[in-house]
Design brief:
This protein is of the alpha+beta class. It is built from three helices and three strands, in the order αββααβ. It has one domain: K homology (KH) domain (GMP Synthetase, Chain A, domain 3). The longest helix is centred in the last third of the chain and has 13 residues.
Length: 75
């Protein structure tokens, strides 16, 4: 899942070298944290959060076979 979020985020931003994705596994869920440059934050979130919601939807669909819930946090 980490690689998927990284590929999506790098394709959206102007400075792909500033994209940092970390994955933390807990008992019942996997937390993926996405950090981008301050100037690219609007491109990742989108108007009214539409792009952020779309990223979360794609990750949820990709992890549907996994027994753990996947959470995407944009920092």
């Amino acid at each position: 899942m980490k690689k998927l979020v990284e590929v999506i985020a790098k394709s959206l931003v102007d400075n792909p070298e500033e994209v940092v994705v970390t994955e933390t596994e807990k008992e019942d869920c996997i937390v993926i944290e996405l950090k981008v440059g301050q100037s690219d934050m609007g491109k990742v979130i989108g108007r009214q959060g539409r792009i952020a919601k779309a990223i979360r939807t794609v990750v949820k669909a990709a992890s549907s076979k996994s027994p753990k819930k996947v959470i995407v946090d944009i920092m």
